[in-house]
Amino acid sequence: xxxxxxxxxxxxxxxxxxxxxxxxxxxxxxxxxxxxxxxxxxxxxxxxxxxxxxxxxxxxxxxxxxxxxxxxxxxxxxxxxxxxxxxxxxxxxxxxxxxxxxxxxxxxxxxxxxxxxxxxxxxxxxxxxxxxxxxxxxxxxxxxxxxxxxxxxxxxxxxxxxxxxxxxxxxxxxxxxxxxxxxxxxxxxxxxxxxxxxxxxxxxxxxxxxxxxxxxxxxxxxxxxxxxxxxxxxxxxxxxxxxxxxxxxxxxxxxxxxxxxxxxxxxxxxxxxxxxxxxxxxxxxxxxxxxxxxxxxxxxxxxxxxxxxxxxxxxxxxxxxxxxxxxxxxxxxxxxxxxxxxxxxxxxxxxxxxxxxxxxxxxxxxxxxxxxxxxxxxxxxxx
Length: 383
Known about the structure:
Elements (H helix, E strand, L loop, with lengths): L2 E5 L3 H13 L3 E5 L2 H11 L3 E5 L7 H9 L9 E6 L3 H10 L3 E5 L3 H69 L5 H29 L9 E4 H11 L6 E5 L5 E4 L1 H17 L6 E9 L3 E8 L28 H11 L4 E6 L3 E9 L5 E2 L12 E3 L2
Parallel strand pairs: 1-2, 1-3, 3-4, 4-5, 7-9
Antiparallel strand pairs: 6-8, 7-14, 8-13, 9-10, 10-12, 11-12
Helix pairs in contact: 2-3, 5-6, 7-8, 8-9
């Protein structure tokens, strides 16, 4: 049951309040002045304090200041008792931060309603603290898990190329001892260069993944249509591949660098896996009541169903020797920040469609209506 401390030097008033609150089921403590009241608050940690202002030894204001300066009692709500005529005292108490005040003589209904409101507010605040603590704890656990996985994966992914480099260096040393094997040495050096290049790319991608944290996201007004065109312009699009933006993409409040990275990874991924003489990559966006749903479709080699979940995990690759297996996990991490989702649909040797959603509410704030969906003009870009 909730605990209430009454600090009042007039015995009859103190006992009256005590009896009323006990009848309502509260646990009640009494103090005849602010000094005793402060000590009881330290020991009993009441959920609410009802205190007179004018008292010997330590008045209500002085006691409240001491409570506010103590980390164990500073959050206890306090209601001041005051005579109706003492408006200056009431104003002073409220300026100190008191939750409310009651006037003497005490009105029973007013007392019970005020106490209930303050207790309910304390319950609500306590629940908010619990919820925030739970969320923070879950976030820290997830970050610890990611950190552990990150360290383990780095160790594994770097050990393999380092062993390969060590082996290649041994081969080169042996081949240099026989001048006639210079061609083999050249091949070995090229292999070594490839391994070093892959390690360098891996470290760059790992650094990008590591730098994606809540503090790195900024909110600015960004035009995704402009961003998509910018990404396409800087990528090396072969002449036999056409890239189209099907409809105008929306303008949102989000992080430009992060979403540019999402488009860059997904479009480059499409470019890397097109095997047709005439390639086509199609960007589009549909809207629902809650989300913007983006898609990047290509007519490439496709992805087998068993890999659809796997490819979004760190260091998971299918058939590309040049891939580090980090790109799609970066996409997933960025979109997850916005409480969005990433998924893939694919038909082997026919097409692959990557989808990602950005919620309209919460972390995202749309600036334009979905009228852009009515626009049938296409933006076509290629080298």
